[in-house]
Amino acid sequence: MAILGLLAAVGVPYLVSYWQASTLTAGAQELQTILNGARQLAIRNNTSVCVKRNTTSMQYISNGCGGTVWTGAGSDNSGWIPLVNGITITAGPAPDVIFTYLGAAAPGGTYTVKAPSNAQTVTVTVAGSGRVTIP
Questions:
Q1: What does the alpha-carbon distance between residue 116 and residue 124 come to, in Å, rounded to a whole number?
Q2: Tens-digit pLDDT profile for residues 17-55
Q3: Is the CATH number 3.40.470.10 carried by domain 2-133?
C-alpha cells in the first residue's frame, strides 16, 4: 500500500502537467481546423471569407468582413463556432484574416491560444499563402 501511495504522489503531478499541455495542444489544433475550414469555404464557394474572433469563438463571414454571416455545422444560430475545453484566444491579428477564393490569406496573422488552467500559450499562424501552422 505504501508503494502505491508513493507512486501516486510521484505520478499525479506528471499526469496533471500532461493533461494541461494536451488541452492547450488540442485547443490550438481546433483553432487551426476552424481557420482551415474558412479557407476551404472560400475556395469551395469561390468568394472571400472573413474570420472574426472573440475570446472564445470564431465566426465566418462570406463576401468579406461586411458580408453575410455563415451558419452551418459547428456554429450556433449567430454563426459563432465555439472553442471547447475553456481555451481562449488572447491575441489575434488586428485586421481580421480574410481568405480569398484562391485560398490565400490577406492579411495573414498570428493568434495566441491560452490554456484555461495555467498561463501557458501557443501560437497559430496564418501565412499569406493561406497555410495555417502551429509551431
A1: 17
A2: 776 777 888 899 999 999 999 999 999 999 999 999 999
A3: no
